[in-house]
Amino acid sequence: MVCKCGKETYFRRKYEGIDLCKECFAQSVEKKIKKNIRINKLISRGDKICVAISGGKDSIACLNIMNEIAKKRNDVELFAITIDEGIGPYRKKTIKKAEEACNLLKIPLKKYSFKEEFEKPLKEIIKNNPKLNACTYCGVLRRKLINQKAKENKATKIAFGFNLNDEAESVFLNFVFGNLDKFLRIGAKVESKTIKKFVPRIKPLREIPEKEVFAYCDALNLPYFKEKICPYGKESVRKTIRKYLYDLEEKYPGSLFQIVNFADLIIPPLNKQVLKKRKIKYCKICGEPASKEICKACELLEK
Predict the structure, then answer these.
(1) pLDDT for 235
(2) What is the spatial distance between Cα 10 and Cα 215, in angstroms, rounded to a whole number?
(3) What confidence score (pLDDT) does residue 89 get?
């Protein structure tokens, strides 16, 4: 099989039943991302967009496409943020790739660390409560820090590299555990006109399967960290769901799109009902938006 242009096949897209050469594949991925951005109005005139990058394939792919868009517009500014949680050699390697990508694309990179902001690296913070796994601390504190620093740098939006697999996992996970609040925050754009100090979040890669993100980065020779396993990574419910959804997609191509599309269908009407009852709170310690008197990040740091 060959691409419709006659060139050798680089990637076979099972859910569409087509073969694509390297050039046509990269163009196709970018076209899908730009369509998502246009339809969901992820970028507005005058935006200053902060791209949260780790050095992995998703965030680097997101950085590249956002840069391509920003270069063609005079009304959008771009910068990147990376967080050093203090995960030893692993994080040093990923940050090196983040720096390499930003240098290649000529995008300003701002670096922050748990040690500087929270006075301790992750390995010390997790001693607060050994019963909690490191991923709980890391995820909560990293999100808080990204939001704070994006705000300090006057960002109007934060772009994350969440792909289709990530989004389908979130739908499944929050549905299974009945986490309505997190379920309702799933979408191409997460924003709130009533919550102060919250920087809107956008997901340009939301409709791109993980396999295609890997292939896209490799097609363009983008620098990214290729080792998947974080030293703190353990078996978790999310990993179990990830494997299940991967197998489902392999057997029934297009399943991930159906899961996410269904969520997109039911979330807007649900949100209208919940927003009427939702009371906005702000953390008594740091002043950031919270669902309780003290935000989860401060709660973890206090323990």
Answers:
(1) 61
(2) 9
(3) 86
Query: Cβ-count burial of 7 within 10 angstroms (0-12 exposed, 13-18 middle, 19+ buried)?
Result: middle
Pick from 200, 204, 198, 168: nearest CA to 186: 168
Q: What distance in Å separates the CA atoms of residue 64 and residue 203, rounded to the nearest whole number?
A: 14
Q: Report the alpha-carbon distance of residue 98 to residue 56 in Å, rounded.
A: 8
- The distance of Cα 7 from the centroid of its chain, to the nearest Å, equals 33
Residues in CB range of 278: below 8 A, 6 or more apart = none
Q: Provide the pLDDT for residue 228.
A: 67
Q: Is the distance from CB of 288 to CB of 144 less than 8 angstroms?
A: yes
From the list 214, 109, 108, 198, the residue with the least C-alpha distance to 161 is: 214
Q: How far apart are CA 241 and CA 170, in angstroms?
A: 9
Number of Cβ atoms within 10 Å of the Cβ of 20:
25
What pLDDT was estimated at residue 290?
A: 85
**Residue ranges of the chain with pLDDT lower than 50?**
none
Euclidean distance between CA atoms 114 and 84, whole angstroms: 6
**Can you name the residues that pair with 49 across neighbouring β-strands?**
78, 157
* Buried/exposed 202-225: b ≥16 CB within 10 Å, e otherwise: bbbbbbbbbbbbbbbbbbeebbbb
Q: What is the CATH number of domain 43-276?
A: 3.40.50.620
Question: Is the distance from CB of 69 to CB of 96 less than 8 angstroms?
Answer: no
Beta strands in 53-126 (DSSP E): 77-84, 109-113
pLDDT digits (tens, 9 = 90+) for 211-260: 999 999 999 999 999 876 777 777 678 888 999 999 999 999 999 999 99
Task: Count other C-beta atoms under 10 Å from residue 174's C-beta.
Answer: 18
d(CA 55, CA 217): 12
